[in-house]
Structures are given as structure tokens and as C-alpha cells.
Amino acid sequence: MTSQTPKKIKKKGWLILALVIVFLIIVIVVWQTGATQKSATAAQQKNAGASSQKASLTVTVAAPQQQNWKQTFTANGNIAAWQEVVIGSELSGQRLTRVNVNVGDEVRRGQVLAEINSDTIRADLAAAKASYAEAQAVLADAITNNKRIQQLKNTGAISAQEATQYQTSQATAQAKLDAAKAQIESNQLRLAQTRVVSPDNGVISARTATVGSLAQTGQELFRLIRDHRLEWRAEVTTSDLYKLKQGMTAHIISPDPAQPAVTGKVRMIAPVIDPQTRYGLVYVDIPATQAVRMGMFVKGEFDLGEKVALTVPQTALLLRDGFSYVFIVGANNRVAQQKVTVGRRLGDRVEILDLAPNVKVVSSGTGFLADGDLVNIAKDIPDTPLTKQLVTAQEQ
Q: N or C: which end of the chain has fewer CB within 10 A?
């Protein structure tokens, strides 16, 4: 009996140890099963919450497009005459008797613009002609006497001194005749100057001549735009001046909205920059037109050629706090707001300078979105009065 008791105690200890181990295993399995169920339940709740979240707006999307757009450069400047001729009087002390043209009249080369009183000059011309006739008679007499004396010179009837005197008399008579002739030509020139004529074809841009006024030498009577030819003198900054080349096309916009733009060509680019304004002048020849007039300060555009532009619809652009934004649609239909730099505009499209070409942007309803919103993507939005109001409110 004494020898069997330790064996029974030893067997009982192993049994208890086995039961404890089994219990621990059961507890671990139950704990792992509960944790798995909790995790699955949380995931289901999370998925249920995510599935229950609704999209904030139904929008349309568009991909940026690469298009060849014309580059233009805008500048302002004055309309001026290519050459403006100042027409004045070459006489002094005579009154204007007739003025034949007015401002805006087309004139031709040699056309009489005004007439100056010529009575005094005609009288002087008549006196000069009479003096010329007298000088002719004196010269003829001197020539006859000189010939006769020269024949007697070799006979000894007259001295050499007397012969020289007759030669001198003939030369003096000839000089008086030449002076009388010069006086006639001078008076004829003065008589021609009583008719103020146009030096070239063109249009009268200014007139100060009035009938009865006293003409003075060098006094301005008319201004003439030669060949009716105008030019646009565009004021261009130093950095933009190098974009322009001789022969480029420019379109000058008329202040009259009913008139079409005037097309001209760059004739010359100023070689110097004004140190006060820091602008350089670009001279653009323009044809004769009624759309612009001399003295106007107008705007124009230079054609710089074509350049590829990455464009999006105008409705995809959102203006907030003075900056431009677009909404990029991700794979999970969530939008991300991105700040962009805007370039040229043409029609209903706008150039974006810093946007990837392989993205999709929201093209409608951007004014009602925020960064991170979930959206529904529609192929097109029905054209209803409500959607028109939404688009109008967004653009405003």
C-alpha cells in the first residue's frame, strides 16, 4: 500500500497538467476567433459606411487637348502720318486772295491750293521787261560803235585808249542787258510763287490760310499727309520688342465697333529705347481707311505665329481668391483641387501652362466642389433651365 501511493499521486499531477494545457489552448482559440470576428465586423461597418456615403455632385469630365493656336501680342500706340508735309508761303508782305482747299480734301501734285496777290509783282515784271528792252537797244548801239572804231584803230585815226573805251562800253551794255534779264526771271519766279501748289498727292490735314491774311516767308498755310498714308506707332516694352520682326502682320482695332480691324505690316522697329518711358516704337504701315484716323490712340495685336497649347474648356476653370484652379478626377471618383497658370484664351477654351496632359478635369459644376469631394461622372448634363442657371452662376 505504501509503495503504490506515490505512483497514484504522480499520475494525478500529469492529468492536471494536461487539463490545464487543454484549457489554455481552448482559451487561445476562442480569443483568436473573437478578434477575427471583431475585425470582420469593423471592416463590414467601415465598408457599409463607405458605401452609404453619397457623391456630392454629378459632373462631366474632359481631357486636356493639344491645339495649334496663333500667338498674339497686344500693344497700344498712336496713329500718325507716314510723312506730313508743311506747305508755306515763299513770299512776304502780300495778301492771300484765294484759298481753294479745306481740311480733308484730296489733292494732286501741282494742284493750286491758294493764290497770293500778284499785282505788285506783275508791275515789277513789266518794269523789268522795259529795262531789258532799253538794255537791248543800248547794247546794239554799243556793238555798232565798237565795230566802227575797231575798223579805224589800225589807220591811226583814233588812239588805242579810245578804242578800249568803246569796247568797255559794249561790255557794260551787255552786263546791263544780263541784269535786266535776271530781273525778269526773278519777277517771273515771284509771280509763280503767288500760286501755292501741292508738292505731292495726299490729303489736307490742317489749314491756317485765310483770305485777306498777310503772307510771310516760311509761314505755314497747310499740312499735307503724303499719299494719304498712315502708320501705327506701337509702344512696346523692352522685353517684348525682341519678339517682333520686320514684315510681321499686325491687326489694329478701330474705336468704332462697326469697323473691322485694319491689317498692316511692320515696316521698321526703332533702334533705340526711350530712356524715360522704357518703350520702343514699332512702325506699322496701314492702308488708307476710314476705320482709324491720324491722332487716335488705339490697341493692336501682332501675329507671332502658331504654337501648341494644352487647353481645357472655359467651364473647367475656377477662380478663387484671385487664383485659377481645376479639379482633377482620381481613380476613386474623388476630385483634387490644383492651382494652375492660365495662358491664352480662344473662344470657349483656355490654355493651361502647368497641367499634365494625361489627366481628366471636371468640366462642369466646378463652382460647387471642394477638394476631396466624391462625384458621379456623367457623359453629359441635360440642357435644362436649371443647369443653365448653375453654369451662369458658376461663371459669375
A: N
Phi, psi (degrees; rounded to nearest 5) at 199: -80, -15
Among residues 224, 234, 236, which one has the least CA distance to residue 262? 234
Residues 6+ apart with CB under 8 A from 330: 336
**Angle, helices 119-153/160-192, rounded to nearest 10 degrees:** 160
Give the rounded distance of the alpha carbon of 300 from its chain centre: 3
Measured between alpha carbons, how far is residue 8 from residues 11, 17, 227 in Å?
5, 14, 138
Q: What DSSP element (H or E) covers 347?
A: none
pTM: 0.58
Provide the residue type at 355 as one letter.
Answer: L
What are 332's three cell numbers?
476613386
| Residues with Cβ within 8 Å of residue 326, at least 6 apart in sequence | 312, 316, 317, 318, 337, 338, 340, 352, 355, 361, 362, 366
Strands 94-99 and 214-215: antiparallel
Q: State the DSSP code for 136.
A: H
Nearest to 344 by CA among 98, 74, 52: 74
CA distance 45 to 192: 111
Q: What is the pLDDT of residue 10?
A: 64
pLDDT at position 163 over 90: no
Give CA–CA dist 252/82, Å, rounded.
16
Q: How is residue 368 annotated by DSSP?
A: G
> Which run of H or of E encompasses 307?
strand 297-313
DSSP single-letter state for residue 244: -
Among 284, 286, 239, smallest CA distance to 260 is for 286
Q: Are 248 and 301 in contact (CB under 8 A)?
A: no
What are the DSSP E strand ranges found in 82-229?
A: 84-88, 94-99, 106-107, 112-116, 195-197, 202-207, 214-215, 220-226
Least confident of 12-21, 287-296, 333-342: 12-21
Question: What is the pairing mode between strands 262-269 and 249-252?
Answer: antiparallel
Task: Report the DSSP beta bridge partners of residue 106.
Answer: 203
Q: How far is CA 12 from CA 16, 101, 371, 391, in A?
A: 6, 143, 71, 87
Give 217-248 pLDDT, tens digit per residue: 888 999 999 988 999 999 999 888 888 999 99
* Cβ proximity of 375 and 362 under 8 Å: yes
Q: How far apart are CA 27 and CA 21, in angstroms?
A: 10
Mean pLDDT of 11-33: 74
The grid cell for 357 is: 496632359
